[in-house]
Structure formats: C-alpha cells, structure tokens
Amino acid sequence: MKIFKFTLIVSILLSGSISCETDTIQISGDLQKMEATKYFDAEVFAEPYLKVYGTWKLFEVSGGFAGNGHDLNFEYLEIKEYGIYGFLSNDTLLEYGKISPAVQTTNDLRLKVDFEADEESDLFFSDSEKYVEFSGSDTLHLNSPCCDRYNYHLKRVK
C-alpha cells in the first residue's frame, strides 16, 4: 500500500510540473532576420504607442456582421521596430509586412494603423485598417473603424 501511495504522489507531482511549463514561442526565422530598416529608416510611432512592439497572443476575435466574431485564425502577432509585423500560427509565418500610422482625421485622437503585406509575402490579413487601443500594459485591441468588421484582442507574451 505504501508503494501505491508513493507512486500516486510521484505521478501527481510529475504531471503537475509538466503541465506548468510555459509555452515556448518560436518566432519565424525570416521575421527575426529582417532588418529594422526594411521599410522605414526611423521610428514611425509616437512615444505613447511604442508599447505596440512585442509579441502578442490572440485570445479573442469579436465583431463581424452578427457580432459573434470568428474562430482564432492565427496565434501570434509580432510587431518589431521600425514598423515590421508578422502573423504566425503553428510556427509558420502567415503574412509579414509593414505596419504604419494611417492618416488621422482632426476629430479622431486614436491611433489608426494600416497593415500592408510585403510584396513577397502571402496575403492573410485582409482587414488591414485598425485602431490601436491598450488595456493596461499587457492587452492590445485592434479595433475596426467601422461596421461589420472584426476586432482582434491580444495579450502580450514578450
């Protein structure tokens, strides 16, 4: 009976330690090798928006015609200096290109960005115009400027 209890306790401890491992995020080599000055020679975002840089994990898609969003269609969004982005899923680079501030209207104080796929990249993210909004220091919302389009909600992982 002691052997059974010992085996059970060891099994529980091992399974607990294995399940607590953090996900390893493997950013595509193509995106890592890309020079910061591929699209822009200097910083494109104003100081308050520099926190857009990093690796973001998609956790929800909302909006759309019925308002229900859709299934998660990518895992990570990597945004690098200066205005380089990549959408990743299963360690595969789905699309990459430049992200830049869009032309702002005088009535709108929010940051609007455009995602423009590189001419050598596959096309994945068709709704390329988004407003950037932050919740705290670890949540990024990419919201659509108008009706029946999708909003993407992401958590910072790096």
Question: What does the secondary structure layout of this molecule look like, with pairings?
Answer:
Blueprint: H1 2-19, H2 29-33, E1 54-63, E2 76-80, E3 84-89, E4 92-101, E5 111-117, E6 129-135, E7 139-143, E8 150-156
Antiparallel strand pairs: 1-2, 1-8, 2-3, 3-4, 4-5, 5-6, 6-7, 7-8
Distance between the first and last residues' Cα: 47 Å
Summed over residues and divided by their number, the pLDDT gives a mean of 85
Strand content: 35-45%
Count of all domains: 1
How many beta strands in the DSSP annotation?
Answer: 8
Strand order of the largest sheet: 1-2-3-4-5-6-7-8
CATH architecture: Beta Barrel
Give the proportion of residues in helices.
Answer: 10-25%
Secondary structure category:
alpha+beta
Could you give the order of the helices and strands?
HHEEEEEEEE
Number of helices: 2
Major sheet characteristics: 8 strands, antiparallel, barrel
Q: Which consecutive residue ranges, at least 5 long each, have pLDDT under 50?
A: 16-24
CATH topology: Lipocalin
Q: Please identify the top-level CATH class.
A: Mainly Beta
* Envelope shape: globular
As a whole number of angstroms, the C-alpha radius of gyration is 20 Å
Short structural description:
With 158 residues, the protein is an alpha+beta fold. It is 15% helix and 36% strand. A hairpin with a 3-residue loop joins strand 6 and strand 7 (139-143).
